[in-house]
Amino acid sequence: MSTEVNILTGVRPTGNLTIANYLGAVKPLLELQEKGEKPFLFVADLHAITDYEPHEVKKYIKELVADYLALGINPEKTTIYVQSAIKAEVMTLSIYLARLTTVAELLRVPTIKDKIKKGQKPESANALLFFYPVLMASDILIQKSKKIPVGEDQVAHLEVAKMLAERFNKKYGNFFTLPKVHQVKSLRILSLKGDSKMSKSLPEGAIFLTDTPAEAEKKLNKAQTAMDKQMTPSLESLVLIAKGLNSTEAEQKQIDEIIVQHKSGQQVMGQFKKLVIAIVKRFLQDFQAKRAEIVKNKKNIDSILENGAKVAIENARATLFEVEKHLYR
Ligand code: TRP
């Protein structure tokens, strides 16, 4: 019998993580893990080949797993697997789901519409772009997942997953749990340049978990803070960074005090930056030391993924078996 998974989320292996990824996505997952929610976390390597070459994607899979482990994901509490380890099941279910939607509907998915607006022509886009939400629905439904922690940009995809589950249930009998977005409070961490969200694609304004402490310091030294008394979005982002990256209570208090002083017109931004830099550097050092330990033993990562895949595939097969009983009854 297939079982419902309480929490499931996927992450595409397309590059190194930034501290904004950690604060916005990994940390909320760690909280769920520590609450005993037994989340499923998978590396969405099939989604990644929508716009990356497969051999590039492959390189990043274990890198990403090492990052997550070093950040505190614990394989005894979280099931970790690679999407392609259950590809036969996921792809088969996606075929059954794809026939419950139309091409016109897929063209209307906001993320896809956005790409088209930005110049991507439907005639030249590869077909995986349109299949993306169907595949994502399959990831979710194959584990009968209830809650999906994702960022704002993925909410439209979850709507598709929910719609496909509803259509299946209506046509073939109640079977799928309807997945819900698990709202993670969205943190708006700006690029250090201040103009947009911190993102891998703007490396100058982003701090990567792989940056050396010296590189991070250099970037932070150039970062925008704020002029006279104002609480700008850039300053707020730096506060979120400093508070979120394992700062001590004493440091957090100090941050609050500095901000009060700043708002009253004192020149404290230099002092503030020093504190932020110290916190970020310490976080990166800790992370990198843990990560180095983890990658020393590559076999360990392999066995974690094998164990996760076993759990994931057993449930995926059971779900697919039951789905086929409904379809071919
Ligand atoms: N599309 C998601 C992203 O780019 C990754 C993803 C793939 C995912 N399948 C999923 C997330 C299923 C949650 C559930 O971030």
UniProtKB/TrEMBL annotation:
Cited Gene3D superfamilies: HUPs, Tyrosyl-Transfer RNA Synthetase
Keywords assigned: Aminoacyl-tRNA synthetase, ATP-binding, Ligase, Nucleotide-binding, Protein biosynthesis
Biological process, per Gene Ontology: tryptophanyl-tRNA aminoacylation
Domain of life according to the entry: Bacteria
Class of the enzyme per the UniProt entry, highest EC level: ligase
Cellular component terms (Gene Ontology): cytosol
E.C. designation(s): 6.1.1.2
Family statement drawn from the similarity comment of this UniProt entry: Belongs to the class-I aminoacyl-tRNA synthetase family.
Taxon lineage: Bacteria, Candidatus Falkowiibacteriota
Name of the protein in question: Tryptophan--tRNA ligase
Pfam family, one: tRNA-synt_1b
Gene Ontology MF terms: ATP binding; tryptophan-tRNA ligase activity
